[in-house]
Amino acid sequence: MDAMDVLILGGTRRARVLARQLVDEGVDVVTSLAGVTTSRRPLPGEVRVGGFGGADGLAAFLGDHAVKALVNATHPFAATMSQHAAEAARRLGLPLARLQAPSWRALPWSTEWIWAAGHDAAAREAASLPGDILLTVGRQPVPHYLAPLADRRVTARCIDAPEGPLPAGWTVRQEKGPFTVDSERALLAGFDVMVSKDAGGSRPDAKLTAARQSGTAVVMISRPPSPSYGQQVTTPELAAEWVRSTLG
């Protein structure tokens, strides 16, 4: 892999849309994936998979490949990667844009949800509520919920199955979206509580709309704080505009 204009830290739909737009414009772009999810959609342009070795490794990669602009389009909960990106870019004086959807806190009915400051807090909140529970937090955070919800009926919906044994009352539902409001409402008919993360967006996604229609209690995990370094953008179009301006 030689010199490149733009490195996208990807793994999200917004990263994929941005890569498509930049490739179509003839920009030299590489998308980097952590490799956590084993099944993924094809990506436009060049792709690398694997970690960098912390902020030091990322800074070395950026310098070795003469990267001109860095776009962090990872999930809003990829806190460690975001910290490493900001630290490496700051160290090199490299332009950085953070591409992520606006928080769902801006929705008028987000006040109806139970907000939790992390997975451990979300597990305690879910345990305090009656009924069956649907976890929509992904595979990696599942261990936070095992002990608090060991005696409950829980379904964990993930793209890839969690590692290790699960309590007797637990099941795994391996699915990949996008989902419709109708399908989510049918699913939620069997649950009283849904635990989710503030992935964000200008509108609620299908499961949140379905939960409100079904009267399902929602425990929502707040985002970790974002590093202050870099330009914040909310759409791939704005990120592409930033890239064009940065590259001149």
Automatic annotation (TrEMBL):
Keywords: Cobalamin biosynthesis, Oxidoreductase. GO terms for biological process: cobalamin biosynthetic process. It holds the Pfam family CbiJ. Pathway: Cofactor biosynthesis; adenosylcobalamin biosynthesis. This is Precorrin-6A reductase. It is an enzyme of class 1 (oxidoreductase). The gene is cobK. PROSITE patterns: COBK_CBIJ. Its EC number is 1.3.1.54. GO terms for molecular function: precorrin-6A reductase activity. The lineage of its organism: Bacteria, Bacillati, Actinomycetota, Actinomycetes, Propionibacteriales.
